[in-house]
Amino acid sequence: MSRRIAFVAAQTGEAAAAHAALVARYGEVPLDQADVIVALGGDGFMLRSLHRHMARALPVYGMKLGTVGFLMNQYGLDELESRIEHAQPTVLRPLLMEAVTEAGSSTTSLAFNEVSLLRQTKQAAHVRVLLNGVAKIEELVCDGVLVSTTAGSTAYNLSAHGPILPLGSQLLALTPISPFRPRRWRGAILPAITEVKFEILDPYKRPVSATADSHEVRDVTEVHIRESREQTVTLLFDPEHNLEERILNEQFEL
Question: How many domains does the chain have?
Answer without folding.
Answer: 2
